[in-house]
Amino acid sequence: MSDPTIQTFCCHHNDNQGGVVTIQIMDEFNTESYNTVCLVSSTIGILGAMYQIFQNGVRRIQSPSRGRKIIMWLAVADLLASLGVLVRSSFWLKYKNILPLPDDDISVLFCSITSAWTQYFYTATWFWTLFYAVDIWQSIQGKDTRPLLYHSLAWGIPAATTSIGLSILYIPNATCHNLTSLSNVLLRILPNYCATYVPIALVMVINPIMYILAGKKIEVTVALPLAQFTSKERRVVDALRLKFFLINVVFYVCWLPNLINGILIWTMWSTMPVKAIISIWYIMALMNPMQALLNALVYRKWNVTDRYQPMFHDDHKELNFSDEQSPLLGSEPPRLLLAPMPSTINNSYATL
Predict the structure, then answer these.
(1) 31 against 254, higher pLDDT
(2) How far apart are CA 195 and CA 332, in angstroms?
(3) pLDDT tens for residues 158-192?
């Protein structure tokens, strides 16, 4: 999982006073069961990411679209992040040195590398999640996608935040358990917390707003040309809003425990609720890697019977109301032209 508290485990462990809180936590922390949970959840996450990559790879060949490209890169980042959790938990299960000793430089190096790897790719998933929402809004407004900008930010920002946060934490001698002054704690540990939690908080705030605006815009786009809002249009809009809602729910379920953990640690350090913190760690160990599997479920293209499938085509943007009766004539109305619907909504963002 990706959490600044767990990343401090990579620092050299000693018996100085600064490590009392860490020792207190580790005395009640069953590392074997924790790493087993990480191992299982990361394996499931890898399988979910591979499924998503395979499905979107096939669909991209059949009908390339901008939305599926974003989903593909999101799945790649999920896969590599889960792989980092799998390798680190396997190492900890085998050698049982979750807290390296003062002279154990190899464990410190391995732990810091795997932590940086995991942190980097999970941060990338947060930005790809954000850019998916942004690209939906861009698509609805008829604007072109910006893949070069998305890639630059989705891979560049995590590289900067991860390298800065972990470098301050580990350099020069990976001793972050014996910080005695508040200023040292703020300078050494707080930057890594900010590098982790600020992107999560941004996605939690921005994405729901983007999806709410997108839902309203789609409702207007579907209903305005017909000057009416029948059950057909309602099904389309409701399905889209449901998908947007589930995407947000998945992100909150997977990453809200991390925010809660950070808040508890920084506000209750002197009276640390050890059992509550450990319980949250288990939740994070389960839910962080499970993001890959849950994403595979909510980002997929939902298929239903042809009776309920709206006809948003690039060539003849029309809506077929074969199951609607005209309120005046009592018969099937003629096909009505629909205002241009962005093709990406139909090909990659539509849920029906």
Answers:
(1) 254
(2) 58
(3) 999 999 988 888 777 767 766 666 676 777 788 88
- Owner of token pair 């539509």: 350
Section 182-211 average pLDDT: 88
Q: Which residues of 36-62 are buried (b: 16+ CB within 10 A; e: fewer)?
A: ebbbbbbbbbbebbbbbbebbeebeee
Put simply, whether the predicted model's pTM sits higher than 0.90 gets the answer: no
Whole-angstrom CA distances from 101 to 10, 29, 105, 175 are: 10, 18, 8, 11
Mean pLDDT over each residue of the chain, to the nearest integer: 78
98 against 278, higher pLDDT: 278
Distance CA 44, CA 296 (A): 11
Structure letter (DSSP) for residue 319: E
Supply angle C-alpha 153, 157, 161, rounded to 5: 170
pLDDT for res 303: 53
3-state helix, strand, coil in the chain (%, to 5): 75, 0, 25
Q: Which residue carries 């991209």 as its tokens? A: 60
Q: Is residue 133 scored above 50 in pLDDT?
A: yes
List the end-to-end C-alpha distance of the chain, in Å, as a whole number: 34
The Cα–Cα gap between 131 and 149 comes to 10
Question: In a 3-state reduction of DSSP, which class is residue 331?
Answer: coil
Strand boundaries in the chain, DSSP class E = 318-319, 336-337
* Beta-carbon contacts of residue 42 (< 8 Å; ≥ 6 apart): 82, 83, 85, 86, 89, 289
Q: Do residues 45 and 289 lie in contact, with contact meaning Cβ atoms separated by under 8 Å?
A: yes
| Angle of helix 105-140 versus helix 190-223 axis, rounded to 10 | 20
